[in-house]
Design brief:
alpha+beta, six-stranded antiparallel sheet, 6 helices, 26% helix, four-stranded mixed sheet
Length: 260
């Protein structure tokens, strides 16, 4: 609760500074729980939020942005109407190349060595590992420090370059579809179907704060889910309720789930 209150104070200050001083502001990278806290705050205070820049430009735009559409860790950025992410992006890309023939590096290797430099977790966004290296999304303000100090991950020497976020290499995500029937469109029923859980285990995950509906943490197992809703189960992945069909002979609801 103390950490949430501190985050809410930061968010309120960032939005106020953008409003009153007419400057672009942003938070550090937020995890799924922090994103939920921020979105709930904005909803309660009637602050419209976006996941991409809107075509029309309100005086202040509050966006959740991580460098690409499927980013898990995002910043909350507040843009006055003169600013644009294309011109004033607070994020950049550190591209890492590793020598061939060595041990392949994992996400944990890259993150651990970055935090070993003294960086806080909120300064580093998603790390997209690929063969021969990785693309690491970071706050622009720490990019020079990383270029000068990020020499090794474990015993592996690294070659770094700083690039515009538009040059990010995003691995192709594998989507699959599940067609199933559920007793109802309750959240616990859909979570159980989507992630292959029993109804009881799905309810337990929801009560523990591990389930997010449209990026907002929810603890209500009986919350209704609608077509197009996104559901995230922390540690298991993300799905979309892509279609709600008719009823079966046993009065169960047909659904189609898209898994990411």
């Amino acid at each position: 609760m103390k950490e949430d209150n501190y985050l809410l104070g930061q968010i309120e200050d960032k939005i106020a500074a953008c409003d009153n001083k007419y400057i672009m502001t942003n938070t550090g990278f937020l995890d799924s729980h922090q994103q939920s806290v921020a979105r709930i705050f904005c909803k309660k205070n009637h602050i419209p939020v976006y996941d991409s820049e809107p075509e029309t430009l309100p005086p202040v735009r509050t966006l959740f942005y991580g460098g690409f559409d499927e980013a898990e860790r995002v910043i909350m950025v507040n843009l006055p109407d003169y600013a644009s992410l294309q011109r004033d992006n607070p994020l950049c890309l550190i591209r890492v190349e590793v020598p061939s023939g060595g041990r392949p590096l994992t996400h944990r290797d890259y993150l651990g060595s970055l935090l070993g430099l003294g960086l806080k977790r909120e300064m580093v966004g998603d790390i997209l590992v690929r063969e021969g290296g990785a693309d690491i999304i970071v706050l622009e303000e720490i990019s020079d420090f990383i270029l000068m100090n990020y020499i090794k991950a474990g015993r592996t020497n690294l070659s770094l370059s700083k690039l515009d976020i538009s040059e990010l290499i995003v691995p192709e995500s594998e989507h699959s579809f599940i067609t199933d029937t559920v007793a109802s469109l309750r959240l616990d029923s859909v979570v159980a179907s989507a992630f292959g859980l029993s109804r009881g285990r799905a309810s337990e995950a929801i009560s523990r704060g591990l389930v997010f509906l449209n990026h907002i943490e929810t603890s209500k197992s009986d919350q209704q889910v609608a077509e197009g809703d996104m559901i995230t189960l922390r540690g298991k992945g993300k799905v979309k309720l892509s279609q709600v069909g008719g009823k079966s002979r046993k009065d169960r609801q047909y659904i189609t789930i898209e898994k990411y």
